[in-house]
Amino acid sequence: MAKMKGKEYEEEMTRLQGELCMLQDYVKESGQRVVIIFEGRDAAGKGGTIRALTEKVSPRVFRVIALPAPSDREKSQMYIQRYLQHFPAAGEIAIFDRSWYNRAGVERVMNFCTDDEYEEFFRSVPEFEKMLVRSGVQIVKYWFSITDEEQEIRFQNRIHDPLKQWKLSPMDLESRRRWEAYTQAKEVMLQRSHIPEAPWWVVQAVDKKRARLNCIQHLLNQVPYHEIEHPRVELPARVYHDEYSRQPVPASMIVPEVY
Hints:
Layout: H1 6-30, E1 33-40, H2 46-54, E2 62-65, H3 72-75, H4 81-84, E3 92-97, H5 106-109, H6 115-134, E4 137-145, H7 148-160, H8 170-177, H9 179-193, E5 200-204, H10 208-222
Helix pairs in contact: 1-10, 2-10
C-alpha cells in the first residue's frame, strides 16, 4: 500500500478531530462515561494516537492516565484498586495509556507476578468489566499491532535519534529480546479477555498515519453521538474606567526577546 501523503493525512485528521469535538459535547451533555484502553508492544504507536486523539479536545473531558510502576503500598492492595480512582465520572472519557492488562503482558513476560496471580487476573477481569458495563461505563479496548521488523526499525530510530532516546528504557530493550514471549502473552490475553461486553479491537499499526486515522474513526463509530446545539456566542464589549491607569511592568521581569 502506498504511503499516505501528508496533506491527505492532515485533512482527514482535521475532519476527525472536529468529530471528536462533537463527541466531547455529546458526552458532556448526556453524562456518558467511557473508558478507552490502549495496549500494544513498545513503539507500536499508542502515544502518537493518543496525542492526535486529545490534541483539540478538553483535558477535563478526555483524561489520559499513564500510571507508573506500582509502589510498595499499591502492590499490597487489590490489583485493580489503583486504577479505580481514575475511572470517569459523568461526562468524562478516561484514556488508559496501558492499563490493568499490564498483568497479562509485561508482568507475565518479566515474571513480575506469580502464576496464581496471573490466573486470578483472568478469572476476575472479565467479571470486573461486565460489572462496569452494567453500571453504565462503556469500555473500548485497542491493541496496536506491529511486525517484528517494524519494531526493530523504530527501536533503531530511537537509539540513533538524541531526541527520542528518552523513550527507550531497559525494560523496552528487554521486551525486544523477548518478542516471542510477548506474542504468546498477547495471544492468551486476547483469547481470555475478549468478551461481548468489552471486546478487543486490533489496530494494524505498521503505518502510523493510517493507524491513527483508523483508530479514531473506529472510536467515533462506537459512541452514537450527535451534534449538540449551543447558544450563539457573542463577545461582550470591553468595559473602560477613566480612573484606571495601567502600571508599567519592571524591565527586570521581562523575558528577553531572543527570537
